[in-house]
Structure formats: C-alpha cells, structure tokens
Amino acid sequence: MNILFLSLLDFNTFDERNIYSDLLREFIKNGHNVYCISPVERSSHKETEMLRFGDSCILKIRIGNTQKVKFFEKGISTLLIEPLFIRGIKKYFSNVKFDLVLYATPPVTFADVISFVKKRDGAKSYLMLKDIFPQNSVDLGLLSKKGLKGFVYRYFRSKEKKLYYVSDRIGCMSKVNVEYVLKHNPEIAVDKVEVCPNCIDVQEVCLNEQERQEVRKKYNIPQHKKAFVYGGNLGKPQDVRFLINCIKASEFLSSAYFVIVGSGTDRHFLEKYINESKPANVSLIDQLKHDEYDRRNIPACSLMII
C-alpha cells in the first residue's frame, strides 16, 4: 500500500520517538510505502525539501508559524496550510497513487487536501481524532459561540464537519469520545466511528541503582524522594495554573518531588512561580532528548514515577 500521512508535527526521520512516527514505522516494517508531509515553520528559516528513506519519504513543506505563537497568528497560518499541502502533493507526488490517507486533529483544515487525494487516486481516508476542535477552544475560553469569536468558531466548526464528512473512518481516543462525536454530529453514521487510542513502540529500559542515582544527581533530583516526572507541552490545555496549585498543595508531602520537562505558551507561569516562591519540591527542565527519556524509562507526554 502507498500511505500518505498528513501532519503538523515537525519531524525529520521515521526513527524519531513519537506516537505518529512509531505508527508509521510499523507500516514500513510490514512492507508498505509511507509518504509523509511534515511542515517546517517559517521561524526555522528552512525551505521546502524532500527527505528519502528507501521507498518511503518525508516531504518538509515550509508553512507559517503555528507553534508557540499567539492564537490568531496560529489560526491564519493553519488556514494557509491546505493550499501549500495540495501544491506539494501535485509537485512531488504526481506519479504516486495513494491507497490510504492518514491524518490527525489538530488541525481540522485538511478536508480539501483529503478530498483532492481521494478524487485523484480513489484512496480511503482515516481520521485519528486527538482533539475535538473548535469545542476545546471554547472550553478553554479562547473562542466563544457569540460575537466576533463566535464567527471564528462557526467557521472552524464548518471545517470540522467537512473533515468528518470526507473521512471514511474516524478513530477516537476513547469510547466517551465516540459517544460525544456521534451525539454532537448526528449526521455521522454510527459504524463510521470507532476507538483508536494512541499507539507507541514500547521500549523496555531499566535503570540499575547506580544509573538511577546518576540521573537524579545530574538533574538535582533528591535521591530519597519519590519523583513525579511530567514531559510534554505547557500550554493552555495543560492548565499550568492548576499544575502550580497541585505543587503548592503537595508542599507538606516531604517524600514527593515534581520534575516538569517541557515548553509552551504558558510555561512562563511556572517559571514565575519557581523564581518568586522558590519551592523545594519542584524542578523545571527545558527539554530532554528522546534517548534521555528512554534511559529514564519516561516516554514523552506522560507522567512517570522514578
């Protein structure tokens, strides 16, 4: 099978450790050809390029800025992605007939790209529904259903419905997500929606006592405390203020220590709290390479105890 994967995740090799490259590697292992479109943002100062890996490849298309930027800049850049992706498919994959198109939310603005490939190649399409947008932005207070923000909400809601329409199958994170999608989109056939949770290539990595002590020493983690480690985004969906309240509420637990690894639009709240209050039960780390995560048996975007 020739599989086209559309993503806003910026990655340069199928060997990277994340839920999407792990999935794509499994397809490659089973003899399928994977053609991935992964963006490179304008802020990186890089141009569009093709990265080849045997019979599979990653097309890095230059787009506007969507990560760690203000909401409206992200929205405008997201709207401009579709024509850039279609142009890239026409230019670089004109001789490839795709059998399957895979994509995930966010964003909800891939419908025209998917329709183009389905019409051109007769491909099947599968949506991996990770975030239910724009409703999640309403829940976070970024959008509303009234006023100017209501206009933006209705626009993206129409995009969301169109994406559901062009998808042959919709895979949700949980049974509750399936029920939510069907309840709020009654036009969708029940047998079109199913549970499709995240999948990873599990790496078994164990630390001996000496390695464990070295890790804790390197990152100034107390040797004899239970360390709770979070790795991932620190934006509005993660509610950093709530995280800070949890850390404050746990100050009396002398055996608990928190290690926060990541970045995002709301990271500065955590930085301010640590700089001003100087809590003794938390450390903040910018980032760790995936191999360092593996050595600690801590997968990205997770909570682990070491």
Structure write-up:
The chain has 306 residues and is of the alpha/beta class. It has two domains: 2-195, Glycogen Phosphorylase B (Rossmann fold), CATH 3.40.50.2000; 209-305, Glycogen Phosphorylase B (Rossmann fold), CATH 3.40.50.2000. Helix content is 38%, strand content 22%. The chain is built from eleven helices and twelve strands. The protein has helices at 19-29, 71-79, 81-92, 111-121, 135-139, 147-166, 175-184, 209-218, 240-249, 267-277, 290-295; strands at 2-6, 33-41, 49-53, 56-63, 100-105, 124-129, 169-172, 193-195, 226-231, 256-261, 282-285, 302-305. The strands form two sheets. An eight-stranded mixed sheet has the order 3-4-2-1-5-6-7-8, sandwiched between helices. Strand 10, helix 10 and strand 11 form a beta-alpha-beta unit. The protein is globular, with a radius of gyration of 21 Å. The two termini are 42 Å apart.
